[in-house]
């Protein structure tokens, strides 16, 4: 089931309106920790985004299983954003 909701901080890109976001970090250690957390989240959810990354950034693109991202992918994107900034959580 596709959704038109755009999670805060994410952009819709491409014909299938995949979710995209770039995460910036102060140091490689933070980037690596984020990638480790993201890998664990993917293992738990079965959702594996496309990634590109450098020393201080990670680009994440979340595609829908069969087209536009649905509720599960939107929830995944929201959780990815929380993983990037764990100190800002309530």
Overall strand count = 4
Amount of beta strand = 15-25%
**Number of helical segments with 4 or more residues:** 2
SSE succession: EEHEEH
Q: What CATH architecture would you give?
A: 2-Layer Sandwich
Rounded mean pLDDT is 89
Helix content: 25-40%
Task: Provide the domain count.
Answer: 1
Spatial separation of the terminal alpha carbons: 30 Å
Give the structural class: alpha+beta
Report the biggest beta sheet as strand number plus sense, adding barrel if it closes.
4 strands, antiparallel
Widest sheet, order of strands: 1-2-4-3
Low-confidence region ranges: none
Task: Say what the CATH topology is.
Answer: Gyrase A, domain 2
CATH H level: which superfamily?
Transcriptional coactivator/pterin dehydratase
Shape: globular
Radius of gyration: 13 Å
* Name of the CATH first level: Alpha Beta
Task: Please characterize this protein's 3D structure.
It is a single chain. The protein is globular and about 35 Å long. The mean pLDDT is 89. The chain has a single domain, classed as Gyrase A, domain 2 (2-Layer Sandwich). Strand 1 (11-13) and strand 2 (18-24) form a beta hairpin. Helix 1 (28-45) packs antiparallel against helix 2. The chain contains two helices and four strands, in the order ββαββα. With 90 residues, it is of the alpha+beta class. Helix content is 36%, strand content 23%. Strands 1-2-4-3 form a four-stranded antiparallel β-sheet, covered by helices on one side. The termini are far apart.
